[in-house]
Amino acid sequence: MTPRFIFSSDLYRRGLVVLLAVSLPFLGSATAQPPARPTSAAPLTEAAVVARVEKSVDRALKYLASKQLPDGGWHNNQAINGLSLLAFLGRGHVPGRGPYAEVLENGKKAILRSQNDAGFLGGTMYEHGLATLALSELYGMDPDPILEQKLRKAVQLIISAQSPAGGWRYNPVPNDQDLSVTVVQIVALRAANNAEIEVPEQVIEKAVTYIRNSAVPAGGYGYQGQGGATAQTAAAGIVSLQLLGKYDDPSIPKALEFLNKVPVEWKSGPANYFYYFHYYAIQAQYQTGGESWNSWHPKIRELLLSRQNVDGSWDVPDGTAEQANSVGPNKIYWTAMSSLILEIYMHFLPAYQR
């Protein structure tokens, strides 16, 4: 098949940035937090860093595999299922072989079964975008014709749901938009395009316009328009423009200043959506590179490594928004997200390439 890339060649070279924006109404009981442990961001050799991270992620994937349900999913929400699949792919596990071949195959089938006749995966565009992203990454490694058929329908639904302003909202209709939902659709389309599923240029141009129009003059990006940047939306806006090839957009420097003032700590604060924020932030910092990246990444790396549970899972800081009653039981969301943040060092997915 001849590739038909609509995105710029420079953006394709730099690769995909996998993002997440999840706000899910799950039920579940909160779990006790372990006592605070000191963290260190002392410099390490690259080999030593990667060895520690690989060991940590391997433990996490073993935990996730143990929580897979008989139907192949991890939850009835396709965002959680997509996240879990991406965690395995991000460690270099591929469909059809290796110790997690069955995990990946069953996870793929669980997401595909959720699609309705219109192509919609899940109950909101959050779910749909993340599920489409996971299927796109799988399709790049697994040319299953059923997967391709359903993925194309999912991509077409995203295209048809873009609002006149260039963004997306919770429902698959082109009526409204917000930054958190828009980010997920952008990355899903980028991943699909990498897998040779064409995305119209005008869809990308409209998305760029929407992100630029969300820039707050003082720094950061607003959730809807320019009204009040947060830690989460600042990171999401930066990486959205990077993903769309606008690495030198004039709004990014002030947004980075805003981002770099957010403390990296295991408690409630400006980054109230702890994992949501740090997944965006690590990607934005990696794409930025240089001093900003070098200052940021050891802090979150050491914090996560110090907080991993003995069974390979992670918890969440007390008082933050992503408690078990919001993101579901069994620590699946927290563990998958921690794995994906740490997998920035591994470069198996296009997400971890500049």
Description:
By secondary structure, the protein is mainly α. It has a domain at 13-29 and 43-209 and 293-352: Glycosyltransferase. The protein is 52% helix and 0% strand. It has 14 helices and no strands. It has helices at 9-14, 46-66, 78-90, 101-113, 125-139, 145-160, 179-194, 201-213, 231-243, 252-260, 274-288, 290-307, 324-327, 332-342. Helix 3 (78-90) runs antiparallel to helix 4 (101-113), helix 3 runs parallel beside helix 14 and helix 5 (125-139) runs antiparallel to helix 6 (145-160). The radius of gyration is 19 Å and the shape is globular.
Strand count, sense and barrel status of the largest sheet are: none
Chain-averaged pLDDT:
87
Number of strands: 0
Radius of gyration equals: 19 Å
Measured by DSSP, the beta-strand proportion falls in: under 5%
What letter string, H or E per element, gives the SSE order? HHHHHHHHHHHHHH
Query: Given this structure, which CATH class of the domain at 13-29 and 43-209 and 293-352 is correct?
Result: Mainly Alpha
- Report helical residue fraction: 40-55%
Alpha plus pi helix count: 14
Which structural class do the helices and strands define?
mainly alpha
